[in-house]
Design brief:
Protein name: Pentapeptide repeat-containing protein
CATH class of the largest domain: Alpha Beta
Order of helices and strands: HHHHHHHHHHEEEEEEEHEHE
Helix content: 40-55%
CATH topology of the largest domain: Leucine-rich repeat, LRR (right-handed beta-alpha superhelix)
CATH architecture of the largest domain: Alpha-Beta Horseshoe
Number of strands: 9
Distance between the termini: 50 Å
Largest sheet: 9 strands, parallel
Shape: globular
Number of domains: 3
CATH superfamily of the largest domain: Ribonuclease Inhibitor
Number of helices: 12
Radius of gyration: 23 Å
Structural class: alpha/beta
Length: about 400
C-alpha cells in the first residue's frame, strides 16, 4: 500500500486541482450572460476549454488505472476486496468519457439551438463525471487497508490472535485517518507486549497527519444551521455514519484538517446505507457534492447555501424537498424515487436528468409552472423560447435527455 500510495496520491491531487471549474466555464453563469442563448455559450469557447481539461483528467485516470490493476492483482482471491470487475468498470468509464471528449470537439461547429441545448446538458453532466472519476476509484484502497491485516497473525488462534489482529487494524487505521472495519473487542494486559510491536509500524509514501489527530465521532447530531466558523474536523460529531466515514476518508486523502478547507466531497456508499446530509452543515465552504449508492433519505435539513453543484448517481432518493439550498446545478443519473414531485420544492437553477431514469415517472413535473422543461422532443424555436422564459422569470430549467 505504501508503494501504491506513493504512485497514486500525486495523481489524485492533480485530478482534484484540475476539477476546479473556472468562473468563465460555469455553464449556468454563461447562459445568464447570454440570456439563455445556448449557441452563444458554445461560441464562448467553453467546449474547447473543457476538452483540454477532460483530456488531462483521462490521462491521469489511465495512469492511475495501471497502478489500480496491479493492486487488484495482488489481492488474494478469497478476499472481499478481490473485485476484478472494478478494473473493467474503470476501463468502461474511461471509454465513455473519451467519447465525451470526442463530442466536445464537435460542439464548436454546431449551428442550431436544437443541437446546442443537448450539448450543454452533456457538458454539465459528463464534465462532473470526468472530474470525479479517479477519486471515486481511489476509495478502493480503504477496503485493502482493512482486509489484509488479519493474515499477519494467521499463526495465532483464538482470542489472543483476534486481539492482536484487531489492535493492528486500529493502530494502522489511526495512522491512515480511517475508521477500522472491525473494532477491538478487548485487549488484555497479557497481550500488550505482543501488540506493542505493531505501534512502531510506519508506512512511507502516505499522507502524514499530525500526532494524535482524530477525525471525529458519531455520537450526536450536528447543528442545524451551517457553521460559518472553521472547526477542526477532529472536533466534529457525525450523526450519520456512512456520510461521516466519507468525510473522514476524504479529509485524510486531501490532508484536510479544518472544516472550511473542504470544498468538494465525493462519496460512494454501500447499497444498504441510509444517508442523511445534516452533518454537512459544518462545512460552509462545500461547493460540489457527489453521492453514489445507498438511499438518500432527505435534503431538507441540509442548510449549506454555498453548495452549488449536487450530483446524485445510482441511488434511491426518498425526498428531494429542500427550502434551504440554492443550487446552480442538480445532476441526476440512475436514480430511483417514488417522490419525483418533491423536486418542485428544490431551489436549483438547472436540474439535469439523463435517460437512465424512466421519463414516464417525470411527466407530473411537466405540468407544473415551477419548472420549465427542455427535452429533445421540442423544436429549436420552442427550446429558445423556453430558455428565454426561464431567464426572464427566474424559473428553474428541467433538462431531460429523453423526449416526452
Amino acid at each position: 500500500m505504501a508503494t501504491f500510495d506513493s504512485q497514486t496520491v500525486p495523481l489524485i491531487e492533480q485530478a482534484i486541482a484540475l476539477g476546479e471549474t473556472a468562473p468563465e466555464d460555469r455553464i449556468d453563469d454563461a447562459l445568464d450572460r447570454h440570456q439563455g442563448d445556448a449557441l452563444a455559450v458554445i461560441r464562448e469557447g467553453i467546449p474547447q476549454r473543457l476538452a483540454i481539461k477532460a483530456k488531462q483528467q483521462l490521462m491521469l485516470a489511465n495512469e492511475y488505472l495501471r497502478y489500480f490493476k496491479e493492486l487488484q492483482q495482488q489481492v488474494p482471491h478469497a478476499s472481499q476486496c478481490h473485485q476484478p470487475e472494478l478494473v473493467a468498470d474503470f476501463r468502461a468509464q474511461i471509454k465513455e468519457l473519451n467519447a465525451y471528449v470526442d463530442r466536445l470537439n464537435t460542439y464548436p461547429k454546431l449551428q442550431n439551438l436544437g443541437d446546442a441545448f443537448p450539448a450543454l446538458m452533456d457538458m454539465n453532466i459528463n464534465q462532473a463525471r470526468v472530474n470525479t472519476l479517479t477519486s471515486l476509484f481511489h476509495r478502493f484502497r480503504l477496503c485493502v487497508l482493512g482486509d489484509d491485516t488479519p493474515a499477519l497473525v494467521e499463526g495465532l488462534s483464538g482470542e489472543k490472535g483476534d486481539a492482536i489482529a484487531n489492535a493492528f487494524i486500529s493502530t494502522f487505521a489511526a495512522k491512515q485517518g480511517v475508521i477500522p472495519p472491525t473494532a477491538p473487542e478487548y485487549i488484555s494486559e497479557n497481550d500488550t507486549e505482543d501488540i506493542s510491536q505493531f505501534s512502531e509500524i510506519d508506512e512511507p509514501g502516505l499522507i502524514q497527519e499530525k500526532p494524535e489527530q482524530d477525525y471525529g465521532t458519531f455520537d450526536g447530531p450536528q447543528t442545524e444551521a451551517t457553521s460559518e466558523i472553521s472547526q477542526p474536523i477532529s472536533a466534529l460529531k457525525f450523526s450519520n455514519k456512512p456520510l461521516g466515514d466519507c468525510i473522514q476518508q476524504q479529509a485524510k486523502l486531501l490532508a484536510i484538517q479544518q472544516s472550511q478547507e473542504l470544498s468538494l466531497l465525493n462519496c460512494q456508499f454501500n447499497p444498504t446505507d441510509m444517508v442523511a446530509l445534516d452533518d454537512l452543515n459544518a462545512f460552509s465552504h462545500l461547493d460540489t457534492l457527489s453521492l453514489k449508492g445507498g438511499t438518500l433519505t432527505s435534503l431538507s435539513n441540509l442548510n449549506n447555501k454555498n453548495l452549488k453543484t449536487l450530483m446524485l448517481n445510482n441511488m434511491k432518493v426518498t425526498d428531494f424537498k429542500s427550502k434551504n439550498l440554492q443550487l446552480d446545478s442538480l445532476l441526476i443519473s440512475q436514480v430511483n424515487s417514488n417522490n419525483w414531485s418533491s423536486l418542485l420544492s428544490l431551489n436549483a437553477q438547472t436540474i439535469s436528468i439523463d435517460n437512465t431514469v424512466d421519463c414516464n415517472q417525470l411527466k407530473p413535473l411537466l405540468r407544473s409552472e415551477k419548472l420549465i422543461p427542455i427535452h429533445p422532443g421540442l423544436s429549436p424555436t420552442e427550446m429558445a423560447e423556453r430558455m428565454q422564459q426561464a431567464e426572464a422569470n427566474g424559473i428553474p430549467l428541467l433538462m431531460l435527455e429523453c423526449a416526452i
